Amino acid sequence: MATEELNSLSLGDIGAPLYCKVHPLVPISIMNLYMRRPEESGKIVGTLLGTVESNVVEIKNCFSIPHDEKDGHILFDQQAHEELTRLHMNANSKEIVVGFFETTSGLNEFTCMLHNFYSSQFKPSINTAILTTPLCLKMDLSLETGKIDMSVSMAKGAYSGFVLFQELPFSLMTEDPQSVGLDMILGSTSGVSYTYDDLISDQNIPANMDSLETALENITKALTVCETYIDDVLQKKKEPNYAFARLVSEALSTTNLFNLSNFEAVFNDNLQDILMVIYLSNLIKAQILLTEKLNKIIK
């Protein structure tokens, strides 16, 4: 289930609320590019790609652009930018350039230079009428504050060569499969962090049943917190929160309600199907390994 807790911002002359969603691939890709940057480069800059539908901007992908800073100016490899943009659009025809990113904190004169460059490359279409200027995503990876700060802003106007930016609220959008991967990387569900070697080899990764057990424990904890809060409200120990009530109502309306016996029957049926799929996949894996070894012996 995608995260839908989004804030809105009324953009003055546009007059419509703008919603920003950032896919987890984007910050992870930026961190990867930052770690692989040349030693002499203090930061990286690049292009953001995504989709715009109605008043929702989804930032789905990104790539870095070679640049050089000299005498207070930034020199971009425009040919690399155009070629990488073309390749990305060939692979993802629905995505367009929605902005740029920079791995520094705060807005400065280089941000204005980046904005001017991408504004010259920015081509709003009918579908992107609400997005008239490129978005600016900032990630501070220096860890000076002990955390990674990220912000999304949009230009509101320019004066004497300077650009006025207004920060936009945004949310990190994750689907269920992405949430599982992020939880494993961050160790947020099990309290265990994994190294790079753990992630590239499945020896230390929890089994499917362990992951299922952890997920059920997290659901149980969340339900316990909700139940405790609702009881406190009914007993007038706490003030009611109408936003929370709406979220609970929406969650219940999208869930099929079963009694305990029916739920156990449906759960066991689905569990047997999952176990069968796991068994067959392991059987196929063993057969492939056996075939490879036989081929080596024959050769």
What is the end-to-end distance? 50 Å
**Could you report the average pLDDT, rounded to the nearest whole number?**
76
> Largest sheet at a glance?
8 strands, mixed
What structural category characterises the helix and strand content?
alpha/beta
Order of strands across the main sheet: 9-8-7-6-2-3-1-10
Contiguous runs where pLDDT drops below 50 for at least 5 residues: 1-15
Written description of the protein model:
The strands form two sheets. Strands 9-8-7-6-2-3-1-10 form an eight-stranded mixed beta sheet. The longest helix has 39 residues, at 260-298. The protein has eight helices and ten strands. It is extended. It has 299 residues and is an alpha/beta fold. Mean pLDDT is 76; it is low at 1-15.
Walk me through the topology.
Blueprint: E1 19-22, H1 25-35, E2 45-53, E3 56-64, E4 67-70, E5 73-76, H2 78-91, E6 96-102, H3 109-121, E7 135-140, E8 149-159, E9 162-168, E10 171-172, H4 176-186, H5 196-200, H6 208-234, H7 242-253, H8 260-298
Parallel strand pairs: 1-3, 1-10, 6-7
Antiparallel strand pairs: 2-3, 2-6, 4-5, 7-8, 8-9
